Amino acid sequence: MISLEEIKPQYLTNDRGEKMAVVIAMADFQALLEDIEDLAAVADRREEPAISHEDFKAALKRDGFL
What is the pTM of this model? Predict the structure, then answer.
């Protein structure tokens, strides 16, 4: 996950010095979007039952992925 220190945001301010917008590098923006998508997937799957690693490997082998 990307941290604020890594992003190094620049702020656009109004004439009173209030922060109005943020400018970040495109690569940082894309990394943030990926983090948000990952977190959304975790939230969507929170209620799914867990399976053991062994059962997961067995299912992959059964389905021809391993």
Answer: 0.64
Domain ranges of the chain: 4-62
Q: How far apart are CA 41 and CA 53, in angstroms?
A: 20
> What proportion of the chain, given as a percentage, has pLDDT over 70?
100
Please give the Cα distance from 2 to 33 (Å, whole number). 10
At residue 61, the 3 state secondary structure works out as helix
Would you put residue 55 in left (φ > 0), alpha (ψ -120 to 50) or beta? alpha
Q: Which residues pair with 23 in a beta bridge?
A: 10
Q: Are 9 and 23 in contact (CB under 8 A)?
A: yes
